[in-house]
Amino acid sequence: MRTTFEVDDRLMAEALAATGLQTEQEVVELALRTFIRLKRQEEIRRYRGKIDWQGNLDEMRKD
């Protein structure tokens, strides 16, 4: 999908330097993937302490 928008030059330069990516497109795509992953983690965290799990984690790790 082709989209045009303006991004703060300093912000983009900092993102390029921090990630080591070569293009602005790569930075934007990484940012979107990261945002989506964080939102999914946030949704999963809502279940913390609400699921009754029984088992032996140490035993499961041996398999």
From TrEMBL:
It comes from the Bacteria. This is Type II toxin-antitoxin system VapB family antitoxin.
